[in-house]
Every structure is written in structure tokens, then in C-alpha cells.
Design a protein that fits this description.
about 425 residues; alpha/beta; 8-stranded mixed β-sheet; 12 helices
Length: about 425
């Protein structure tokens, strides 16, 4: 991502747009020391470009410097192609084993940290500096057989210095590093975890366990009296999902970063056991991580709709009646059928209205935002003489305009007028419309 010949701002911009559509306000982005060292000026220029693209989409990234996960022998230049059927097979650690083992190379790492953070130390586009990802991870099941036997001890020597280097340039952004294990739930902090928690302005943690365990981590860490962010979660088969965990995060006012976003070279739709049993012929029954397919369609529309609801229905309106339903109006005239197809492509239906309060709420939203439209198609239509909703809702609420519905056999589709009343008209009429989910 960070080398000049593979830097792709067009793709980055596109994928940031997916995040904006979900209402996300931050993304976690990993750097690499070798990409910086081969071209410091170009590296910082590319990071500046990424921050600009992120800001365009309302995102303030968490920037991660070092990472103890996966291949301990990184190289600069052309990167290896991923191993088919194996997650994160081309991901490299930073710093690599050679740098860890050679303390004379740590001066290079200091330059990397102080130059990058110093350059952006007063830049509000950066939310937080994540200095080291899972420093105690020795990569059991993948690269543990080629890791330095004293890796964690070396990290424990370097990590406090990394915090000192970062603070020496006086960034306005907070610093953090997330503990890898969970011994702290029992009050048993490892030396690495003690370094992390003693130096972090914001407490971050990783958790891929079911909801009760996730909640226990939050409760334990909030006792430290600092803001808490879960910087990794969401692995569907382990019981860590958007459905189960977002309500807990909201309950405790905890920020949350799911691991992986768009399915691509990293193949994070594959599970951890793909290192032992590559998914070459068949894909897993259920995706492990990832939210979007390569073409930008959601893996599960139900998940992306849920995220939008928790983020206040970005680019639309969240019902003030139930504080949950999302509405999206459009001033582009379409026939009723085409409007329904367009809504469904977004994981929604033409709007359903369940009460006089909802009707007034929707009408108010539409009149304020789409004053050029006199009426809007909603999801009610006539089917063999019965008025039914396109999403098969059972709501019997109706708010007909005086004299409606007419008996015109061609007027089978319903619109919501600017005054909140409903009338029926031919389904072929092109009309503004409103979707809901």
C-alpha cells in the first residue's frame, strides 16, 4: 500500500467511501518501517494523501506503527503474492526479526517514529497513534517456528522507547497499544501489558470472544479510568459479531474497530485455521472477517444496515419515533417498481409507515430536505384488491387524503404527499420516493 509503485489512491478513496456510507468515523491503518526507510519523503507524502482522502469521507484514522503478527522477515520492494486459500499469508511484521535482534537498527526505527509523528503531530486528521499491534504475539500456528526465541523480551526492551520517541515530538493525539492476551482479567498483567497500560493515554484491547467475555473486558479496563476502545473484534464463527457486540459497545460508550473491511489480497474472509487447512477448493460456509465484497456489495446487508442504525442513519434520517428505523429520500423520479428495485439494492424497501407519529416524522424529514418534490412513493400498493406493503409488513395504518383511495383500477400504488396525506396513482408515474429499513 505504501510503496510508490503499488500506492492506489483511487481504490483507497473508493473503500473509504464504503466506510462513510456506513457512518464510520475512523479506520485503523497500518504503516511499515521498511516502506518509510526506502523513501521517507514519498512515504509521508502518501500518508498525507491518505489522510486527505480519509477527511474527505469524514474519517479520522487510528495509525498503527509496529506489528508483531505474521511473517517476521519483511522485505521492501515487490511483495510476495498471497498463498491461495490462506488468510493474511503475505502480511509482514514491523519491525522484522532482524531489526529486533540488531539493537543498532533501533536508531532507524526511532527516526521513523519521530519523523512521521512529528510531521503530523498537530494534524487533527489523525485520531490516535497505535504504536504496536499485539507485541506479545509469537504467531502460534503460522510463523512461531521461525520467530526469535526471545522475541517478547526484545519487544519489552523496545516498546517503552517507542512510547518515549512518540512523546518526544509532543503530538496532540493520544498514544496507545492494545494488550494481546486477557490475563489482566485476573489481575495478572504480563510485563508487556504493564508497559502498554502504563504508557497508553487511551486503553485499547482486542477481543474475538462471545458477548459476555467482551463485556467483561470492557468492565475490567474501564476501571483504569481512561477512555476505552476495542481496536479489534468481529470474527463471526467465534461468536463475535456486529449483532452481538455493537449493543454492548453502545451500552458502555466504547469505540469499536472491526478487523478487516473489503475482501481482497489479505483474504480475511478465511478463518485462522486456513494456515493449517487452506481453503483452496471451497470457501468457508461463513465468512470469518470482512464486511464488503470486492465490488462493494455487503457480505450481509443485514449487518451493514445494523451498522448504519447504530451510526444514526448516515446520509439519511433516523426515526425520532423508534430511534432505529432509517429513511432515505430521493428526488430522482422513478416509477414505483423502479424505486422499489433501487431501495432493495440498498438493503431497504419503499418506506413502511406504522402510525400517525411515524407518518408525521417522515413527512417532516421529506419536506425539509426535498422541497422540490410534491409527493413520494411509499411501499403500499394494491394486490388483487388488498392494500399491502412491499416488505410484507402487517401494519394496517392508513392516512388517506380525502376522497382516496380512488377506485381507478390503474391507480395501484401509493404516494405520501407533502402535507402527510396519502393518495393512490398509476404505478408507472415517475415520482420521488422514500426507502426505509
Amino acid at each position: 500500500m505504501w510503496q510508490a509503485d503499488t500506492f492506489n489512491p483511487t481504490l483507497i478513496d473508493k473503500e473509504f467511501g464504503f466506510a462513510e456510507d456506513l457512518g464510520m468515523y475512523s479506520m485503523r491503518i497500518f504503516l511499515h518501517d521498511l516502506a518509510y526507510s526506502q523513501d521517507p519523503t514519498g512515504f509521508k507524502s502518501r500518508l498525507n494523501t491518505v489522510l486527505g482522502l480519509a477527511a474527505k469521507h469524514g474519517l479520522r484514522p487510528m495509525i498503527t506503527f509496529f506489528d508483531s503478527c505474521w511473517n517476521p522477515y519483511p522485505v521492501s520492494g515487490k511483495q510476495p503474492q498471497p498463498t491461495k486459500g490462506t488468510m493474511l499469508s503475505a502480511w509482514s511484521q514491523s519491525p522484522g526479526a532482524k531489526s529486533l535482534l540488531n539493537s543498532t537498527d533501533w536508531a532507524r526505527l526511532k527516526t521513523y517514529v519521530t519523523d512521521v509523528i512529528g510531521t503530523f503531530a498537530n494534524d487533527n486528521r489523525v485520531l490516535i497513534w497505535d504504536l504496536w499491534n499485539e507485541p506479545e504475539n509469537t504467531n502460534g500456528g503460522s510463523y512461531n517456528h521461525v520467530e526469535p526465541p526471545n522475541k517478547v523480551q526484545l519487544v519489552d526492551q523496545l516498546l517503552p522507547q517507542v512510547f518515549d520517541w512518540a512523546r518526544s515530538v509532543n503530538p496532540i493525539q493520544p498514544l496507545t497499544s492494545a494488550p494481546f492476551g486477557s490475563d489482566y482479567l485476573k489481575g495478572q498483567w504480563t510485563p508487556t501489558e504493564q508497559i502498554q497500560v502504563n504508557n497508553s493515554d487511551v486503553i485499547t484491547f482486542h477481543n474475538y470472544a462471545p458477548p459476555s467475555d467482551y463485556e467483561n473486558h470492557i468492565v475490567a479496563l474501564q476501571k483504569l479510568g481512561r477512555p476505552v476502545i476495542c481496536s479489534e473484534y468481529m470474527a463471526r464463527p467465534t461468536g463475535s459479531t456486529f449483532v452481538t457486540h455493537l449493543p454492548i459497545g453502545k451500552k458502555y460508550n466504547v469505540g469499536m474497530y472491526n478487523w478487516a473491511f473489503v475482501n481482497g489480497k489479505t483474504e480475511c474472509n478465511l478463518p485462522w485455521d486456513s494456515w493449517q487447512n487452506p481453503y483452496v477448493q471451497f470457501q468457508p460456509q461463513e465468512w470469518f472477517h470482512e464486511v464488503f465484497r470486492k465490488d462493494g456489495t455487503p457480505y450481509l446487508v443485514e449487518e451493514t444496515n445494523l451498522i448504519k442504525r447504530y451510526n444514526g442513519c448516515p446520509k439519511g434520517y433516523q426515526s425520532s419515533v423508534d430511534n432505529w428505523t432509517c429513511y432515505y429520500g430521493s428526488s430522482s423520479p422513478l416509477s414505483w417498481a423502479d424505486a422499489e428495485v433501487t431501495c432493495r439494492a440498498q438493503g431497504a424497501y419503499l418506506a413502511t409507515v406504522n402510525s400517525v407519529f411515524e407518518n408525521a416524522d417522515i413527512a417532516s424529514y421529506l419536506s425539509k430536505n426535498y422541497s422540490s418534490c410534491n409527493s413520494f412513493s411509499i411501499g403500499l400498493y394494491s394486490h388483487y384488491g388488498d392494500w399491502i406493503w412491499s416488505n410484507y409488513a402487517t401494519s394496517t395504518f392508513r392516512f388517506w387524503k380525502s376522497g382516496y383511495p380512488t377506485n381507478d383500477t390503474n391507480a395501484l400504488c401509493v404516494v405520501l404527499n407533502q402535507d402527510g396525506s396519502w393518495s393512490n396513482q398509476p404505478c408507472t408515474n415517475t415520482q420521488c420516493y422514500v426507502c426505509s429499513f
